[in-house]
Amino acid sequence: PRAHEVSLASLEMWGAFDEETTSGEVLHGVDFVAEPGMTVALVGPSGAGKTTMSNLIPRLYDVTSGAVLIDGFDVRAVTLESLRDSIGVVAQDPHLFHDTIRNNLRYARPSATDEQIITACKDAQIYELIASLPDGLNTVVGERGYRLS
């Protein structure tokens, strides 16, 4: 089948994931729905599968049974470009380079316009802080953000 384009409005995940290990399934019987506008936090002890679940959404891994659906589309049936353009993933230990805020944000999408960067910052509710800095988006944050504290 031809791949579709998708935008993230609602997310549904169900089924299992097997990380090709001798221990078998890593996640089993995972079911949840995130409605548009809903904020979802994956919480639990170390090794519970939080990172694995978040890696299924942008298809860093694929489920072995069940599906990850966005707006009713199985993420395996959409283009990786449209899927990854529609979501953002923040790692447990985000890395900042010794560069400007603007260039750190462009690391994921080098072609991003200033307008897109500002929109992303507003969506992440960090724009007011950035705008309050003397150099705004041109503020050099330092390795791992040490110059921000």
Lay out the secondary structure.
Elements: E1 11-18, E2 25-34, H1 50-56, E3 65-70, E4 73-74, H2 80-85, H3 101-106, H4 114-123, H5 127-132
Antiparallel strand pairs: 1-2, 1-3, 3-4
Question: What would you say this structure looks like, in words?
Answer:
There is one protein chain. With 149 residues, the protein is α+β, with helices and mostly antiparallel strands. It has two domains: 11-85, no CATH class; 101-148, no CATH class. It is 23% helix and 17% strand. It has five helices and four strands. Strands 2-1-3-4 form a four-stranded antiparallel sheet, with helices on one face. The protein starts with 10 loop residues before the first strand and ends in a 17-residue tail after the last helix.
